[in-house]
Amino acid sequence: MEFTLLIAAAGAVAALRLVLYFEAPRANAAVECASRLFDASLSAMFFGILIGRLWAMVDAGTSPLDRPFDILLVRGGVATGPATLVALATFVWIMRDDLWWAIDSIAPAAVAGLAGWHAGCLATGACLGTTTTVPWAMTEPASTVGRHPTELYAALALTLVAATLVFWKMRARPSPGVIGAIALTAVAAIRLATEPFRLTLGNPPTAWYVLGVVGGVTLIVWRSRAITDSPEGAPTTV
């Protein structure tokens, strides 16, 4: 058995916490608020990964009841769409009192967490995608066939988006929800762009990524017209 899924999750949590720690005294309202965001994010991540993994197992014909240890202990995928919906719903429910502030505050850290998840491929050996002859191609052990380091493409692009959002948020105050909407759009677009380089065993989740881009753009347009609830944009509760 392998703990590859847990390794990827650990990378995501570490990146998430690092960005929140950096942002707390600079962009978020207070360190206590950053801690609350981190706790809510962990809960959302846990339920998202759990449901996404269960969905992927059932879709592959594996019963979670017959093989419960396969949920987290072995190499396996997570159904992107269901995992994302459950994670978002969990976070929205926990932070419902200060929803738009919370979404904007967590967005850069969440994108960084996804970058950490993808970068975990270096530890799990799951970076490689379709064959290629580009100079930066990677090869499997005992193989001379070059392959796209697809997960690293996603990790680098997501890191760039996270950094851009952090510094933009520290210098501007867009309408509540805009930063979160941009993050959603960027993440879905990056996954959509890297999907052709992935090795796909079943039906690719392309439709989910298209839905994410459309939904994100719609949110950007809607929230760009919103009126800031308070001059400081700070939460009403911590």
Topology, element by element:
Layout: H1 4-23, H2 31-59, H3 80-94, H4 99-119, H5 121-124, E1 128-131, E2 147-149, H6 150-171, H7 178-194, H8 206-224
Antiparallel strand pairs: 1-2
Number of helical runs?
Answer: 8
User: What separation lies between the terminal Cα atoms?
Assistant: 41 Å
Average residue pLDDT: 83
What is the SS-derived class? mainly alpha
Could you give the order of the helices and strands? HHHHHEEHHH
Helix content: 55-70%
- How are the strands of the largest sheet arranged? 1-2
- How many runs of DSSP E, i.e. beta strands? 2
Unreliable stretches: 228-238
Main sheet summary: 2 strands, antiparallel
What is the CA-atom radius of gyration, in angstroms?
Answer: 18 Å
Shape: globular
In percent, how much strand structure appears in the residues? under 5%
Please give a quick description of this structure.
By secondary structure, this protein is mostly helical. It is built from eight helices and two strands, in the order αααααββααα.
Which structural traits does this protein have?
single chain, 238 residues, mainly alpha, two-stranded antiparallel sheet, 8 helices, disordered C terminus
What do these coordinates show?
- Helix 6 (150-171) packs antiparallel against helix 7 (178-194) and helix 7 (178-194) runs antiparallel to helix 8 (206-224).
- Helix content is 62%, strand content 3%.
- It is mainly α and 238 residues long.
- It has helices spanning 4-23, 31-59, 80-94, 99-119, 121-124, 150-171, 178-194, 206-224; strands at 128-131, 147-149.
- The radius of gyration is 18 Å and the shape is globular.
- Strands 1-2 form a two-stranded antiparallel sheet.
- The chain is built from 8 helices and 2 strands; from the N terminus they run H-H-H-H-H-E-E-H-H-H.
- The relative contact order is 0.14.
